[in-house]
Write a structure and sequence with these properties.
There is one protein chain. By secondary structure, the chain is α/β, with parallel strands linked by helices. It has a domain at about 5-160 and about 190-215 and about 285-300: NAD(P)-binding Rossmann-like Domain (Rossmann fold, 3-Layer(aba) Sandwich), CATH 3.40.50.720. It has twelve helices and 13 strands. It has helices at about 15-25, 65-70, 90-110, 130-145, 165-175, 190-205, 220-235, 245-260, 270-280, 290-295, 305-310, 320-330; strands at about 5-10, 30-35, 55-60, 75-80, 115-120, 150-155, 155-160, 175-180, 185, 190, 210-215, 220, 240. The protein has a seven-stranded parallel beta sheet, with helices on both faces. It has a two-stranded parallel ribbon with strand order 7-10. α2 packs across α3 (about 90-110) and α5 packs across α7. It is globular, with a radius of gyration of 21 Å.
């Protein structure tokens, strides 16, 4: 009898990065457990594989028992859980430090063969950003519990469901001005499916343990990225610099409003911690292992961005047709 397909548990497997990881693992023939807090909201992942191959299961990485149930019997574990904004019980430390450590400890106890943890460029125990410190502490907890772990640190991630280009393109539809904090901060945007390819390769083929920093083939400032986005959607907008002192004050006020309303209002606009992050470049370190060490060629932004940003043009998918018709009239 043929041996059963191996099992991988993907924590956060229905999220932005996680869903691409889930698809790649399913296409490679693995059975995939998509561990999420609300399985009823992740039923769409079942379509990523054959019947019964991909299943959402309940797990909360702040809880030992549900984490253990999600991992028991798995051959590999990939942790894609992360938050950008604290809300309710979802805190940076509880999710990105304690949660990551808990998954790694349970995976080691359950004798999982391979473990991949998705972190972020900028993880630094000495950072003034709570987010960056929690990411660094999570990496340390993972390495302590599972020394053979592969840790992936992507720069800002782009793709159809991203919260970067989509957010500012939506803003450009409504506002003549796009306010920007840290316009000269440099990023190295990486395509979400390239990050998923790195995670899948680390599980399926095995790669040396340690940290890999993942960035795309281009480095650009925040302002340059917004200018590229505006060219693609065919809109002229003023990119206005928000001075750091003003941004800090705005972040403080919005953070206070979230606390004062006991979480009824969630600050998804700009937090004090995000202002701290935007003051620092987010690019691959010169001496870091990256895509080349994994044998992966990263995808250029121009090959992907237009495929999902076209909907923000004034005429949407018909923009090219209308432009062509206007050119014919002029002739």
């Amino acid at each position: 009898m043929p041996s059963p397909a191996p099992i991988v548990t993907v924590f956060g497997g229905s999220g932005f990065i996680g869903r691409y990881v889930t698809q790649r693992m399913a296409r490679a023939g693995w059975r995939v457990r998509v561990a999420v807090r609300r399985p009823n909201e992740a039923l769409f992942v079942r379509t990523y594989g054959a019947v019964g191959q991909v299943e959402p299961i309940q797990a909360n990485i702040r809880d030992d028992a549900s984490t253990r149930r999600a991992i028991a019997g798995a051959d590999a574990v990939i942790n894609c859980v992360g938050i950008l904004v604290e809300a309710g019980p979802q805190r940076f430390d509880s999710v990105q430090t304690e949660g990551a450590g808990r998954i790694a400890r349970v995976a080691a106890h359950e004798r999982v063969r391979r473990f991949v943890h998705v972190s972020a460029i900028g993880a630094d125990p000495e950072s003034d950003s709570v987010y960056a410190r929690s990411k660094a502490a999570g990496e340390a907890a993972v390495r302590a519990a599972f020394p053979a772990a592969v840790i992936l640190r992507p720069s800002i991630v782009f793709g159809v469901e991203d919260e970067f280009f989509n957010r500012f393109a939506a803003m450009a539809r409504l506002s003549p001005v796009i306010p920007v904090v840290g316009p000269e901060t440099r990023f190295q945007p990486v395509y979400v499916d390239d990050v998923a390819a790195a995670a899948a390769k680390a599980v399926i083929e095995g790669v040396p343990a340690g940290i890999y920093e993942l960035g795309g083939p281009e480095v650009a400032t925040f302002r340059e990225l917004l200018q590229r986005m505006l060219r693609i959607i065919g809109r002229r907008r003023l990119i206005a610099t928000v001075p750091l002192p003003i941004a800090r004050a705005q972040g403080w006020a919005l953070d206070f409003l979230q606390r004062a309303t006991f979480g009824i209002f969630t600050n998804t606009l700009i937090t004090r911690d995000q202002v701290r992050l935007l003051a620092r470049d987010n690019v691959v370190a010169a001496d870091a292992r990256g895509f080349s060490a994994l044998g992966i060629v990263p995808t250029a932004m121009d090959t992907v961005l237009e495929s999902y940003l076209y909907c923000y043009r004034s005429s949407g998918q018909y923009a090219a047709m209308i432009s062509s018709a206007e050119n014919l009239r002029q002739k």
